[in-house]
Structures are given as structure tokens and as C-alpha cells.
Amino acid sequence: MRPETAIVEIHSQYKVHTEFYGNPEAKQTIILVNGSLSTTASFAQTVKYLQPHFNVVLFDEPYAGQSKPHNDNTRFISKETEADILLHLIEHFRVDYLMSFSWGSVSALLALAQCPARIKKAVITSFSPILNDAMMDYLTRGLDYLAAVDRDNVGHLVNDTIGKYLPSLYKRFNHKHCSSLDDHEYLQMHYHVRQVLNMDSRCYVDCLQNVDIPMLFVNGEHDEYTSAADARHFAKHVRDCEFVTIDNAGHFVDVEHKEGWLQTQQALLGFLKAPVSSSLARPQPVADYQAIAV
């Protein structure tokens, strides 16, 4: 099914490309948050198992994908600003659930820490609160390539590290995408990496103690960069959390092989469709933000 596309204007400052996969029978809506260097296209496989059950919202950050032409991209956007954009989209689309992937989880957690009233549950995939040695090596090398706008090496780095378990066809598409971005996208990612490296984890971890919704953390068995063991440290900060490890999967849990896709599907649907305690029910605010149809 082709999505309804629109440009949502936020604070008269940012214009965000959105895709709405509607399901006439669905009563609930989920929004997906991209990882670094990604666009809405990265969730093609995820939409396949979510859209039969929910309305699904995808979006590109102002500096990326189909949002780029609508913004001047002369200033870097912080993770805090990305969290604010996400909160506005949650209100605009009246979102019930949130799912984030990889480094998109930083802005997602910053947003959840503000306890948006609409969100009933959240899923965080391929992320952990710990920058382990493997991740630090990946980020440190990435900083050099991003600062130099070394397109080819950025593509190889992604495929040789977090993308090492991707099928060869995906690796070719991945390299083509990561090596053909605009200059400002590499510099924006360089800014984000430096921000994350300098960010006190308390900014997006300790504040989760205020979150009163169920959260599911999903990681791949063989992901050494955001390992399942490291992800379990979230249990120290989140009151209501569950953990799932996808067998024989690396960082890209639902695109590396069919079994990983099925396991991720089962984990997410089992978690999202389970009833929520009525004690967690919240009033549902109404907001009105301008949308410009594409």
C-alpha cells in the first residue's frame, strides 16, 4: 500500500516529510524513528509486519531524505531538537506507540523522558545505554570519515561493522546510500556523534525513571556494538521493561534474514498488542499542527 505523504511544519522553522500508512481497521498508530544516516526507506521491512495491525507513521529528519529540499540545512540540529520534533509528530498524528532503531533511540528516549501523554508503549531496538569498546571504535573512526566527507569510507565502515551480517544485496544498497549523501548530512552526523560522545548518559537514561509506560528492548544475539547484555542495563533506569534477544542476528535485527524478521515481528506484536493496565491510562490531549500536502 502506498502511504499518504505530507510535509508537517513545526514551529514555522522545520518542515518534515512524513509517510502515513493507514489501516482502516486499525485503532492505534505507531511512529518509527530512524537511525543515523537513514531515511524512511530503511523501515520497508518493518512496515510489512506492523501495517496489518496499526497505522504506521514514518518521517525524515529535516536534514535527511525527502525533508532536505524543504529546509535550508545551514544549522546543525541537536538530539534535543529532534526529540522536540518527535513530540510534535506524536501529537499531530495522535500516536499511541513508538519504535526507534539504533541511534534514533537517543532522541526517542529524550522524548519519552518528557512523558508524552499519548504514548502507551515504546520499543527500542538495537540500542544500549553503554558505549562499549566496539561502539567507541566505530564512532571514533566514523568521526574522521564524516569530518572529511569521505563518502566511500563511510559506506565501507557501516557495512564492515554494524552491517557485517547484512545480506550482500543489502550491503550494496547500504554502501550506495551511505556514500551518496549531501555534504551537510555527513557534517550533521559528525555533530551528532560528538554530541553523543560528550553527552552525560543521565540526559537520556536516568530521567527514564519518570517514564510510567511499558518498554521493550530488542537486540541481536551477535550485535557486539549494542549488545543484548549491555541493553539489560536499562533495567536499572526503567520501571516497566522487557528484553528480547533475536537469535543469530546482528545490529539490523529484522532485515538480515527471514527468521530474524519473524522473531522481531512476534516480539513486537506480542508486546504491543498485550493489554495495558487501566491504571496507566492517561487523558488524551488534542493538538493541531499545520500539514502541507505533498
TrEMBL record:
Keyword Lipoprotein: no
Highest taxon in the source lineage: Bacteria
Domain AB hydrolase-1: start-end pairs: 29-253
GO molecular-function term, one example from the UniProt record: hydrolase activity
Keywords: Hydrolase
PANTHER family: HYDROLASE ALPHA/BETA FOLD FAMILY, PIMELOYL-[ACYL-CARRIER PROTEIN] METHYL ESTER ESTERASE
Protein name in UniProt: Alpha/beta hydrolase
Species, as recorded: Metapseudomonas boanensis
Taxonomic path: Bacteria, Pseudomonadati, Pseudomonadota, Gammaproteobacteria, Pseudomonadales
